[in-house]
Write a structure and sequence with these properties.
Elements lengths: L3 H5 L10 H10 L4 E6 L3 E6 L5 E5 L11 H16 L8 H9 L4 H10 L1 H7 L1 H9 L3 H24 L7 E6 L7 H14 L3 E5 L4 H14 L10
Parallel strand pairs: 1-4, 4-5
Antiparallel strand pairs: 1-2, 2-3
Length: about 230
């Protein structure tokens, strides 16, 4: 991208940045705060009053992405596998997951999961949330663990930036939030227990607004727009 953009658009100012930088801009502008992202993947990113930044997570589904829709879906399929082997509790996910994906049986589900994990696993988040609302123990355990993982991501950033005792906005961004009362409540309690003065909220505007703000600043001061990798 860094090579292509200046060649393709020689009269334009080019800047390549990360999605979590854009999300933080949308959440708090140029001020201090932390954004916690959980969609297909997960990450936390923040900035303190001194302008220092820190990131945690964002390493992809095979290394990290705790609390992401991908991880929640993967763990749901694993819970069904354990239940089938009688190595885990009976769970309503055994019937709900194949029905949601229009799979005829377990073999079809596993084959599709192996071939298209990026398509199958994130789509199961809503199924897990529904099962948890019905007090399915396996689904509730998955969401509990996810909330702990996401809270830990946020707290790593908070500690690294020395913001634990400060008042600051912590803004949740991504498709995982706002769809599970259980996960949202657990996550908020984890964050507040570690940072009592954090003001937890959900991002109410599109991250694209953050991208537009950054682009506007670079257009006004193009000398600051030194490209960097993302």
């Amino acid at each position: 991208m860094l090579v292509f953009l200046p060649q393709e658009f020689p009269n334009a100012v080019s800047q390549v940045i990360t999605d979590y930088e854009i999300a933080l801009e949308a959440a708090v502008g140029a001020g201090l705060g932390v954004v916690l992202i959980a969609g297909t993947g997960s990450a936390a990113y923040g900035r303190n009053a001194a302008g220092e930044t820190a990131r945690a997570g964002g390493y992809g589904p095979w290394v990290g992405d705790e609390g992401s829709a991908f991880e929640i879906g993967r763990r749901a399929v694993a819970a069904v596998a354990r239940s089938r082997d009688q190595a885990g509790p009976v769970t309503s996910l055994t019937e709900m997951i194949p029905a949601a994906l229009d799979c005829a049986d377990w073999d079809e589900l596993t084959q599709r999961s192996m071939k298209n994990p990026d398509e199958i696993f994130p789509a199961l988040f809503s199924v897990v949330a529904k099962a948890a609302d019905a007090e399915d123990s396996a689904a509730m355990e998955i969401l509990f663990t996810s909330a702990i993982g996401l809270g830990n991501l946020a707290m790593v950033v908070v500690r690294r930036l020395g913001m634990k005792e400060q008042e600051f906005p912590l803004v949740k961004c991504g498709g995982v939030f706002g769809h599970s009362r259980i996960l949202d409540a657990l996550l908020d309690s984890v964050v507040v227990s570690g940072a009592l003065r954090a003001k937890v909220s959900k991002l109410e505007i599109s991250p694209a607004v953050g991208a537009a703000r950054i682009a506007t600043r670079f257009a006004e001061a193009p000398a600051q727009a030194s490209p960097h990798g993302a």
